[in-house]
C-alpha cells in the first residue's frame, strides 16, 4: 500500500510539472522580457501540488518544471550558475508555498473561505518572492551589463519585479477561484 501512495505522489508531481511546463509555453508570450522572464501561469500547478502534498510535493514539482524547461531548451542561459539559479532554484522555490499545506487543508475541511484565501495568497506570495529572489540574484550577477548607471541589484530587482508582480497576482486569483469552486483539486484523502 505504501508503494502505491509513493507512486501516486510521483505521478502527480510529474503530471503537474508537465502541465506547468505547457502553461508556461502557452502563456509566456504575455509580458515577454528581453533578457528572459515573462508573465506565466506555470506556478499554479506547482502550488497545487504543494497544497495537495505539502512542501515535499511542491519542491519536487518545481524542480521537475525547471528540469523540463532546461532539457527542452526553453531557457536563456549565459552561465551554468545563472541557469541553475534561474531554472532549478527559482522554480523549486515556488514549491515552498507548500509550507501552508496544513492551513489550506484545514480551511477547506472547515469551509472557511476567508482563511483559505489568506493562506493561498500567503503561499503564492512566498513562492513568488523566493522565485523573484533567485531571479534577482542571477540577474545581478550575470546580466549586470544591462544596468547602465543604476545599481545592479536595484536594476535586477526592478526588471524581475516587472513580470513577477503580475505573475503573483494572476496566479493567486486563479488559485483562489479554482479552490473556491473545486476543493476536490487539493483535498488530501488519507
TrEMBL record:
InterPro entries from the UniProt entry: Thia_Transptr_ThiT
Alphabetized GO MF terms: thiamine transmembrane transporter activity
Transmembrane annotation, as ranges: 7-27, 33-51, 58-78, 84-104, 116-143, 163-186
Keywords: Membrane, Transmembrane, Transmembrane helix
UniProt KW Oxidoreductase keyword: no
Presence of keyword Transmembrane: yes
GO terms under cellular component: plasma membrane
Name of the protein: Thiamine biosynthesis protein ThiT
Taxonomic source organism: Metabacillus indicus (Bacillus indicus)
Amino acid at each position: 500500500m505504501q508503494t502505491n501512495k509513493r507512486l501516486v505522489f510521483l505521478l502527480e508531481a510529474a503530471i503537474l510539472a508537465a502541465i506547468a511546463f505547457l502553461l508556461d509555453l502557452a502563456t509566456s508570450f504575455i509580458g515577454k522580457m528581453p533578457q528572459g522572464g515573462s508573465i506565466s501561469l506555470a506556478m499554479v500547478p506547482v502550488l497545487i501540488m504543494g497544497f495537495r502534498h505539502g512542501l515535499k510535493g511542491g519542491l519536487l514539482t518545481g524542480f521537475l518544471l525547471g528540469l523540463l524547461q532546461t532539457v527542452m531548451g526553453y531557457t536563456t542561459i549565459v552561465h551554468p550558475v545563472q541557469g541553475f539559479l534561474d531554472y532549478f532554484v527559482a522554480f523549486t522555490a515556488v514549491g515552498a508555498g507548500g509550507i501552508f499545506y496544513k492551513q489550506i487543508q484545514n480551511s477547506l475541511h472547515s469551509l472557511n473561505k476567508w482563511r483559505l484565501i489568506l493562506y493561498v495568497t500567503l503561499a503564492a506570495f512566498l513562492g513568488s518572492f523566493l522565485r523573484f529572489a533567485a531571479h534577482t540574484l542571477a540577474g545581478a550577477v550575470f546580466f549586470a551589463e544591462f544596468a547602465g548607471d543604476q545599481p545592479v541589484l536595484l536594476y535586477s530587482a526592478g526588471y524581475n519585479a516587472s513580470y513577477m508582480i503580475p505573475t503573483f497576482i494572476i496566479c493567486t486569483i486563479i488559485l483562489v477561484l479554482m479552490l473556491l469552486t473545486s476543493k476536490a483539486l487539493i483535498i488530501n484523502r488519507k
